[in-house]
Amino acid sequence: MPTGMVKRYDEKQGLGAIGPDNDGSDVAASASKVVGPGELVERAQVECDIEAGGRGGRVVNIRVL
Q1: Cα angle 30, 44, 34; round to 5
Q2: What pLDDT digit, counting tens, does each position of 20-44 carry?
Q3: Burial class (CB in 10 A: 0-12, 13-18, 19+), 48
Q4: What's the CATH code of the domain at 48?
């Protein structure tokens, strides 16, 4: 499961972007995809699955570390 950091997050919209630790492209993230405890906030370390779609993919099954 890839890891990364939340680069930006808009709490009102519940949307943001995660930058993978492997220097790949940022991927779109939705607060509705968080599983387990924790919430998305800027600079939070996360692990997630990445699905094809959108521009560069989107993350699912986000776990806040």
Answers
A1: 35
A2: 898 788 888 999 999 999 999 999 9
A3: buried
A4: 2.40.50.140
